[in-house]
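PT: before anyone asks, these are the final sequences, not the draft ones from last week. 370 residues across everything. Please model them as a single complex and drop the result in this thread when it's through.
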Amino acid sequence: MNASSHKTSSHIVPLKVYLTVSIALVVLTALSIVISQLNWGGFGTAIVLGCATINALLVAGFFMHLRYDNKFFTNVFVVSIITLGFLLAFVLIDTNSRQGLYENTMQEIKQGANLKEVKQRNEARDKPAQPQGK
Amino acid sequence: MNTAVNSPTQESVAPASLHHAHSHPPYLAHHFAEPEQQLEAAKMGMWIFLLTEILLFGGIFCAYVIYRGLNIEMFHSAHKLLSVPLGATNTFILMASTIAMTFAIRAMQIGNRQQTLMLLAFTLVCAAVFLGIKYVEYSHKFHLGLLPGIYYAYDGSEGAIVGKNPHIFFGIYFAMTGIHALHVIAGMAVIAWMLVRTAKGDFSAEYYTPLEMSGLYWHLVDIIWIFVFTLLYLIG
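LR: through. Structure below.
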């Protein structure tokens, strides 16, 4: 924040900056679509994800004014990404160490069981027993 | 004011001395000292709301990462049933709307209300077209039986899916795109409201905070779509 400024409105970004960012967004999106169709494997996936990340950063930095605003808002944005990183990291550690569990109890789902049949069987199992010989 | 209710004798003194000691603009709420403080408070509230939105979608992205890791082949063959041309068209349409929103706010910053109105209307039309294309995609999936859970009934007529449990992919597809579509609908309501308020002359080059906050939300919806599109349509 500029202490000497008493302006109530935000910084007006030059038209040229917005136009450049807009063109970059369109070009990067087109590039990622083309590369995804070329079957470059892991390398292609990395480029496509990189394009998406750069696009997101361009929108956040210029269109959402993070570059020009109080750094506090950038911190809020970064904190949300870090929190998401923790969520992903811990959940992945969890699911990657469940091999034994899946092999024992998730066998049916792993083998591609027909979900309708499983549901019907479970419903039949959970229904209270019918009185016999009525 | 409360002071007037509590002590009627001060009625004639309090308003003059407390509230009109210095002039302030009509948009400044009385619990803020100056417009700049009000703007920063609004932005802080908005960014914290956006943080919760990022975490909401983060949960679904997390589900995507886990199930993709467990079913790499199935995800790759199932994602080929999504239409890249339709998805790409939607990406460019949403990008056009988010760019229009940026220029709409900039137009208001330089005091060009007519241009703001036009650009907001364009943003709204883009959002509607986005939802229209989404409807075409959804109805095709419904028709083929490419649905989550027990409703999955695909017969392989448009290409076989390799691997087991393809309904998981479509569960994540509908959760991701469906919640995003709800955000687009909410965004349309907000932009329509901004259109009305701009037309009524509520905003000026000095005060356009609601417009700016709507812009922040709309840009985040675009950022999320960039990732939804990349993960589901492009990578699979």
